[in-house]
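Continuing the batch. This is chain 6 of the set; chains 1 through 5 are on the previous pages. Same settings as before, nothing changed between runs. Recording input and output for traceability.
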Amino acid sequence: MKLENITNRLSEAQVKADYELVIQIQIRLRGLGLYPGGRFIDGDFGPRSRRGVKDFCDAVGLPFPQYDQTFARKLLETRYLPSRLAMTNSNREQIFNNLLSIAQGTKLSSSELAPFLHRGLKNSKYAAEISQYPQRVAKKYNSSDSPSPYQPYPQRGIIPTIDREGLNFLHSDIKEACICIGNFVNGEIQARWLGKNALAERQFWSSTKIIPILNVVCDANTNFPNIDIANCYINQNIYQFTDIILDILTYQGKLVSSNSAAATLKLFCTPTSLENWLKNITGNQQLNFRSGYGENPFIRQPELIDRLSGKKVLDPPFNSLEIDKNYISAYDLTRIISMVGWHLHLPENARLPGANWQSLQSIITTMGHDRARYVEVAIETLGLEYAIASPVILSKLGNGYSNTRGTNEITYVAFTQFLDERNIDNNEDSKFRTLAMTLRAMVPPSQTFVEVDARMAAEVTEIIRRLIVNQLV
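Output for chain 6:
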């Protein structure tokens, strides 16, 4: 039975015996922030499910337990619970503890040390929508918000003014962070930049792998403006470029490991020229970006070939990567990923140099496949799954144990946009929300990756909450 088909009052025993109905109830409760997702959507009406139903009934003023048509209709129609959003504001440590409990109760494989960081697409509500991301980020939206907090997006090579106090709300485990909130003003994206040690040079692990990906795209389109990177292969027809990117982002290793693939892409120019390319984009002249990722490149002399024309698009110089020279800032990564998501809405002098929209569409699609799903966890925790529309979530994870610092570290760079429809039933227009962010969490080894993973999920949740309620501008 489905909720839509309930006409008579059901006993709790009848509900428990109906697997299809329990699954639907669990999914609806998860979307309202009242039930942990992932492996707990199991069709088993246990204490978690019962508690979620009770919390829902208490929030909307229904008697409990009473599984009737009124309950079913209310559960189907409710977009979000204001009380849930308020609770996440007043009980931030409780949110962390709830997420930690879920993380600790999630079975890990030997290679997955953090269940939110490695959640993957299997349990993603938005997996089927990734193909729509390019069309969504291409659309211009009207905004009724005052443009006064926003400034024109800076041209390449210019560091924007960053509010150094704007992220003081973040937990002390988050050592560096940068957020850029966007808004449409006169048809172009304008931005507000917030930071916490945003320009400090740090190791951001695998999060930086988006940089060589975008460098190859920019150089390829600079040489051949009309080619689509989706039609390009590395070394004739052996390795399709977009498949290599998927291996970098998903760690599935279908063709090659993420580390060796990213190191190979770094060989398409010299370490110094790649570093200067990044400096010329972000304006940060202090960064160092000349190293690989702990594994040898899987191809020592890669060539990028356009399959349609047979043209050699990139023929790199022979060079080798340096050791321990990947130190950039949270600002650099936020700047780069925001330029991907907002490409069509930026002036020409602020765009990724040379990249054409056709190629970037493929990058946007592949970046939707990152294993880290922190933004989704935030939406779920806040109970906003049914209150947002047309979401876009691009991201790249990074994590590792630093021998030199003696710390467990997780990094996360992400771009997101969506339509906030919480008040659409009251004849209010939906509100366009978008931001890019980078965070680095660092804790001593006495705190496990599971703990720092839950902390990252909790802080991303707080960022999305503040975006929703206009506390970041």
